[in-house]
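cron nightly-structures :: item 1 of 1
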Amino acid sequence: MVRHLLLPLAALFVLIGIPAAAHETDPDLAALAKRYEQHWEERSEARSVTPESYRQSAAFAGELLAELATLDEASLTPAEKIDAAVLRTLLEQQLGNARFREWEMPFDSDNNFWSYLAGRSGYRTVEQYDEYIAEMRDLPRYFAEHIANARSGLARGFSVPRVTLEGRDASLAAYVVEDYRQSPFWVPFADFPASIPADEQTRLMREAKDALERAVTPTYADLIGFFRDEYLPRTRTTLAANDMPDGPAYYAQQIREYTTLDLTAEEIHQIGLAEVARITAEMEKVRAEAGFEGTLEEFVTFLRTDPQFVAKTPDELMGVSAYTAKRVDLKLGDYFGFLPRHRFGIVEVDPAMAPFYTAGRGGYEACQMNTYDLPSRPLYNIPALTLHECAPGHSFQAAVAKEQPEASEFRRNTYFSGFGEGWGLYVEYLGEEMGIYRTPYERFGRLSYEMWRAVRLVVDTGIHHYGWSRERAVDYLASRTALSTHEVNTEVDRYISWPGQALAYKLGEMTMRRVRAKAERELGEAFDIRKFHDVVLSLGSVPLPVLEDRIDAFIAAGGPGLEGVEYE
């Protein structure tokens, strides 16, 4: 069952500071979902991030949640019950974020509002270019609203810890240029498609130049000044979420949002300690298999320092990732019945973000690999990373979700970290069955990545609930994984500035492995791994309790696959 808000709606509205809006009850689930979808389309088009806009959205969420509660759940189809559970969770999360005014912390060490605005490619019409120029001219207003929110957060001690932000202004420097043609925003104008007439190209370049010189570059310069001179000096020096305003309740809300599970920080900490012990034993087996006669700690030091594991060029690292992805392609048909038609590319992380970015990130259009500081990206980790981020991980997962013919429209772009990141870690494990790991070192890399996610359960709760120092968190992560020193430091800063998110991976993966084991046990010879995976991915992205309910139904029905997919 999906957990509901702990506070009655009326009480929550008082805490948020918004009126409990009234609306004529509409008991039709499809209509409620459509209103939700339309609301967010309008929010996206308006690009407003004022407190009032967020409060209006929260009022709307409360209104929809109240109407959703009037539905007769017994009359819903199985698919509609999933839709209702997803919509309920999304609305509850929205109200939770509004209660703590999360818009007052508009960036952290891993996410921000300024790095993904520059258009890179894909514009094909004059109208698209005109819209892009209009967005550039609107940047001063958009940034000013975010800055105002950040100031409000500072005033009440609601900010990212200072230690995680030092040096992050480097990602802004690339946008403050002397020559407008060097701006990342200029990229779409440097190479027009043939569909744009020459006279329009001239006009568009003239208007883009004006927008860059009058709006974009000065706005980024102002943001750098705000970041360096006002925000960073006033950020909090504590680390724990518990030290923020209403901190314990805030951290509990973050845990629920990212895991979709009803677990306490204490319970998660103990789960993490148990997983760390289990994976350590597996690592010892692989160390022995590799023929290394020293201790596990010495083996990790060898892996971190031996030059054979370091790519000599970015292309070498990208080549290992690309080759892994093609080897996975060869095996996909044995593990999945539904294969998406959409193809993704593997690209390097934007150089402006790379020094502070994670090792990789999957997406619908592309799977990103970080080639910054190659000694910190050991090659034995790349197969597991590629499985997680590319295929059958996030890029594959996103394509499957979008191509489900009967998926509700409002769920096509929905993402729950526990499900999404749980799947990513699960397929790292699946790589063992698929035969992707060819050496003990690559298998150790996989175990190191699993240990990394198990350690997150200990470190995240250690920092935000038990008050660990940054040094203790770094030492704990470094001593139990083969991650490089650079990766360890960027990861710990991420956990500090993004409470709860790191818990999603391991708890989600454990849920997926548990429901698979249950299906295998109860279905016996009727269990088909392709059908199981298809059913899981056909959900798109759902709260973990919804996944458990769906697999229970899958078992009760005898383990059927998807309609229209041939399983031979």
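cron nightly-structures :: done
The chain has three domains: 9-99, 126-237, 254-507.
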